[in-house]
Design goal:
By secondary structure, the protein is of the alpha+beta class. The chain has a domain at 86-179: T-fold. The chain has helices at residues 56-76, 84-93, 102-117, 127-133, 148-156, 186-200, 291-304, 309-316, 334-339, and strands spanning 3-6, 34-42, 45-54, 98-99, 164-167, 170-173, 206-210, 213-217, 225-230, 237-243, 248-253, 258-261, 264-267, 281-288, 320-325, 330-332, 341-342. The protein binds adenosine monophosphate and magnesium ion (MG). Adenosine monophosphate (AMP) is lined by residues 122-124, 130, 135, 181, 183-184, 252, 268-270, 272, 295, 298-299, 303.
Amino acid sequence: MISILPVFCSTRLKGNWPSLVFAATLCACGPQQHDQRLDFYAFGTEVSVTLYSVTTPQAQSATEQLQAHYADVGHNWYPWRRGELHAINNAMRSGSRIDVSPRLAGVIRRAAEFELISGGRFNAGLGRLTELWGLHEISAIPSTLPKKADITAILADSPGAARIDWDQDRAGTRSDFVMLDLGGIAKGAILEDSVTILLDLGISNAIINIGGDLTVLGNVRGRPARIGIRSPGNRSPIASLSVDDGETVVTSGIYERFVEIAGIRYAHILDPATGYPVDHAVSATVIHVDPVLADAAATALIVGGTDEFDALTEAFGLDLALLIDSSGDVRLTPSMRERLHWIE
Ligand code: AMP
Ligand code: MG
């Protein structure tokens, strides 16, 4: 099993702005420039954004705009709290159409696209199953396994984001069981939005890291960014790889988040074909210039497992992908094999 360990962290210095910790390091920057690290806690995870060779006004604007955006998506893209996605799910459940804001409509449409590309391995319309397994909320974890009949009833209706029919940006569906849960794609979309915010501010060298999924903009003081991969067992680094300008690295792992029901651990990634949590693949890493695609593809690779690795990497057009299954077997695309530097 692996997890991504960014190895570019800089020394932390205390800052004055609330809820953030800044880091400044000595750097070969222009006169008014410095490196700065911004730390946020958003949508249940740690976000760190490291800016290279920025001015103080640039860093300040980045802080304000990123913070506002993270607060917005944390509220509006989470289906189990009163925000836009919650309202969309409620409307669809009651059979009515609802206006969706352009950005969220775009993300939902991409989720539907990935559902089709992956042959249903990626499915962002299984919120009812997520609820049944209690994967969304600690207090909702059931004490016994969900009833097979309940799982079957949901799957019989073939729920999915692709079941939504659109009238411009008004969404509706005829399925009683479609409930959007964008957890498998949201981090990729937020990485994409973060890049837009930074580029608009004229910041062209940065690393945005959302809970281990990261996008590299430009380079790190003239050199390509490098990230480390470590074993979750003894946490020691086992490999490293360079990440080029504009690339995103996303890892999905069944060890990261899980629920425990009657003493057995169940992963937070569901196999849409069975309605049960995946247990055959433990970790999938994808590198791609499209963060949203990378996020969806990593989730789909976990579901497909080693049997479908080749078909799914082809379907998503992945050059750089890595999958480790529960028996420790590693599948790599040829380019990923070249990119990885094993430490031992
Ligand atoms: P990730 O960590 O990107 O693989 O996303 C996992 C999250 O996506 C879960 O916590 C669920 O919210 C959601 N999810 C679970 N199973 C699937 C699936 N088969 N396809 C798409 N999203 C899923
Ligand atoms: Mg994902």
